[in-house]
Amino acid sequence: MAQPAPFQRYLDLASETSCYEALRDQFVQEFPKFQDLGEDRTSIVHAPYGWTIKQVVGHVIDTERVFSYRALRFARADATPLPGFDQDLFMAEANFNERPYRELFQEFMLVRQGTIEMFRTFPKGTLDRTGIASDFPWSVRQLGRCMVGHVRHHWEIIEKRLGAF
After folding, report:
1. Could you read off the pLDDT of 55-71 as tens digits, one per residue?
2. CA 46/CA 114 separation, integer angstroms
3. Coil, strand, or helix at residue 138?
4. Fold that domain 5-162 belongs to in CATH
5. For the packed helices 101-121 and 53-75, what is the interaxial angle rounded to 10 degrees?
6. How far apart are the C-alpha atoms of 36 and 102, rounded to whole Å?
7. Is residue 135 left, alpha or beta, with left meaning phi > 0 and alpha meaning psi from -120 to 50?
């Protein structure tokens, strides 16, 4: 299956073959270092970026929910084409900066745990099912990999913004 071009970077960042293991391993290995960044570091915009770290985490939460929904629909053999979503519209309607970082991160952990459990319970063969989302063909496997790569992409940016932490 062709790779959805705008999302290729995320797919490249997630070379793991098992979506379940990649989602789980990322949760165990990568999430802890971002858990306690603190209000002061997460509430400001670090130039040249346009979002606070709280907003980045909120964006990742929203994106994981959208991609998980797509994966569920396709896994259940519902090939109804699904629309894209406008991350800037989502951001404009969210209140991420008004929430404590620890609360946002806790929500992110809960969302990821739900994603992990969903992928763990998919029947054999489900990951190869396909559908259309954002005008691109996707397999359930690609959606899982994209979620892992999307988080890695944003973790890399946060690490650049904050330097060694």
Report:
1. 999 999 999 999 999 99
2. 31
3. strand
4. Four Helix Bundle (Hemerythrin (Met), subunit A) (1.20.120)
5. 20
6. 7
7. left
Q: List the chain domain ranges.
A: 5-162
Residues 6+ apart with CB under 8 A from 76: none
The answer to whether 152 and 14 have CB atoms below 8 angstroms apart is: yes
pLDDT at residue 7, rounded to an integer: 84
Q: What is the pTM of this model?
A: 0.92
Label residues 112-136 b or e (16+ Cβ within 10 Å = b).
beebbebbeebeeebbebbbbbeeb
Q: Is 29 exposed, middle or buried (0-12, 13-18, 19+ CB in 10 A)?
A: exposed
Angle at CA 117, nearest 5°, toward 4 and 7? Answer: 15
Show the CA angle centred on residue 46, arms to residues 53 and 99, nearest 5°.
30
